[in-house]
């Protein structure tokens, strides 16, 4: 819940999101393979970590990057919705007028990591309101 008024467009939990863990698809596949080794027992720590990754990560918007960002701060505790009307927090990157990211754009290339990680208030949030993020 918001501890103060948050105007639309303001960053939300920027410090927490900046600490997101970046994992490649290959790293996640290696972790998954480690728990499949026959005859070696179980690996509950890795299994729990994989469950956390599944629940609290999202893929980069950059085609072909194979990067996943795992939220490790307070944003991992926020309620998530697919309903744009209910959500009051969303991706920092505004939608491109064409509806998709251009094949090549120096602006998008320069800011892609920030677009992949940071969230902003999508509408004014009053003190005491629940902070609900739109699913990545």
Question: How do the helices and strands line up, and which of them pair or pack?
Answer:
Elements: E1 11-12, H1 14-18, E2 21-24, H2 25-34, H3 44-56, E3 57-59, E4 67-70, E5 79-81, E6 89-91, H4 106-117, E7 119-121, E8 132-134
Parallel strand pairs: 5-8
Antiparallel strand pairs: 1-7, 2-4, 3-4, 6-7
Verbal overview:
With 136 residues, the chain is α+β, with helices and mostly antiparallel strands. The chain is 29% helix and 18% strand. The chain has 4 helices and 8 strands. The chain has a 3-stranded antiparallel β-sheet. Strand 3 (57-59) and strand 4 form a beta hairpin. The longest helix has 13 residues, at 44-56. The radius of gyration is 17 Å and the shape is globular. The two termini are 20 Å apart.
Strand content: 15-25%
The structure class reads alpha+beta
What is the rounded distance between the termini? 20 Å
Adjacency order of strands in the biggest sheet:
1-7-6
> Count the helices. How many?
4
- Radius of gyration based on Cα positions: 17 Å
Helical content (DSSP H or I, runs of 4+) = 25-40%
Identify low-pLDDT runs. Answer: none
Mean pLDDT: 89
Instruction: Work out the number of β strands.
Output: 8
Keywords:
136 residues, alpha+beta, 3-stranded antiparallel β-sheet, 4 helices, globular
Explain briefly what this protein structure is.
This protein has 136 residues and is an alpha+beta fold. The chain is 29% helix and 18% strand.
């Amino acid at each position: 819940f918001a501890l103060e008024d948050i105007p639309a467009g303001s960053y939300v939990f920027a410090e927490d999101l900046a600490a997101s863990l970046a994992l490649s698809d290959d790293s996640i596949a290696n972790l998954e393979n480690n728990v499949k080794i026959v005859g070696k027992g179980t690996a509950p720590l890795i299994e729990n970590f994989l469950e956390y990754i599944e629940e609290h990560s999202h893929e980069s918007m950059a085609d072909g990057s194979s990067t996943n960002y795992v939220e490790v701060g307070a944003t991992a505790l926020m309620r998530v919705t697919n309903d744009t009307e209910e959500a009051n927090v969303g991706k920092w990157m505004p939608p491109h007028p064409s509806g998709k990211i251009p094949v090549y754009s120096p602006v998008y290339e320069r800011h892609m990591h920030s677009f992949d990680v940071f969230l902003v208030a999508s509408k004014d949030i009053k003190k005491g309101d629940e902070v609900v993020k739109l699913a990545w």
